[in-house]
Structure formats: structure tokens, C-alpha cells
Amino acid sequence: QVQLQESGPALVKPSGTLSLTCAVSGASISTNNWWNWVRQTPGKGLEWIGEIFHGGNTNYNPSLKSRVTMSVDKSMNQFSLELTSVTAADTAVYFCARGGRGLDYWGQGILVTVSS
Amino acid sequence: DIQMTQSPSSLSASLGDRVTITCRASQSVSSALNWYQQKPGKAPNVLIYAASTLQSGVPSRFSGTGSGTDFTLTIDSLQPEDFATYYCQQAYRSPLTFGGGTRVEF
Asked: Could you give the CA distance from residue B98 to residue A59 in angstroms, rounded to a whole number?
């Protein structure tokens, strides 16, 4: 059973960096899948942030591209998200998800609040 | 970006009803269209991928049709566990984009 679990700070200060990790269990991150980050806010709904392949190839949403970096740690079977220069508009529930037949496995989500 | 427009944004239904949700893309996405169900406090769960293929384990009362720009999700004989919010998502071109959601309420 594939499981994903997000972790990271729940509170980030404005202008700071949001850093999240998604631990994958039940499957190797080195399979033929893309690993995604999606966020959800009441106002903007579901927003795709980007994806990474185990080889390091990435695709980012152009709306966030200048602030986003994704990375993979194959030894830990996990992948990560960094979002810089955050504002209150980045307050959201952040999900990690596997790209397969659709986004077929998701983490439970982590609420990240940007506030001083 | 490809814009995804769902309608209605919410609907009221009763147990046993047949429910249809539509999704329109701002340009053709071929059959690269997925449907998700989301319950409060939970992550979305994929129901249908590639417009019409039922994900493993999803009840057969769910079905999807369409290609190009117009798609539908149908729920035959609505069950108590089907009251949720439904999203379409195009996987044709990056960035992936989602519809605004359809809330199915009692």
C-alpha cells in the first residue's frame, strides 16, 4: 500500500521560506512516476505547484516558478518543496501526491499558515 | 494555462438520485481528464482517469464521458457516502489545472 506523509513547520513568517518534505512508503520513489505538490485554499481551490521525477527533472507552475524548488532524496525515499518569499496568500493546505493514473496517491495534507 | 470550468458549483440531491456534473476545458485536452472526490478534511481521491476509466476500487455507479473540451461525471443512484465535493483536472498540458469543484449536498 503506497502511503505519502507530509511534514514541516505549520507556521512560517512572511518573507520566509516554506519547506516541506513528503515521505513515501510502500513504493520506491525511483519508479516511473512523477511526484507532485498541490495546495488548496478556500479562495483559489486546488492549485498544482509542480512535480519532480526521481532523476531530478522538474516541472513547475509558471505562477510560482520563480519561488519554487523541488528536490528528491532517493536514499530517504522522499521528496521536498521549498517556497521562498512567502506571503499570507501562500497560507494553504499543502498535499504531496503521486502522478500515476491521475494523481493516484495523496498525503493527508498539512496546513501551513504564513503569519508573523 | 488551460482553464477548467465546472457546473454547477453546488447541487442538492437525494439518495438514489442520478447526478451529472459537467466540466469544460478552455481548449482541447483530448482524453487527459481526471475526476476526484474530496470529503472535508481529506485529500482528493481519484475516481476516474483518462476521462472514462474507473480507478480500481471505485464503485461502478460512477462513470465519466467526454473528450476534447466537454466532459461529464455521472453518479447513478446516489449513496450516503457520495455527498462530497467533486473536481475535474486536466493532465494534457502543464501546468495541471483543476476545476473549481462541485459540492453535492443533501
From this structure: 17
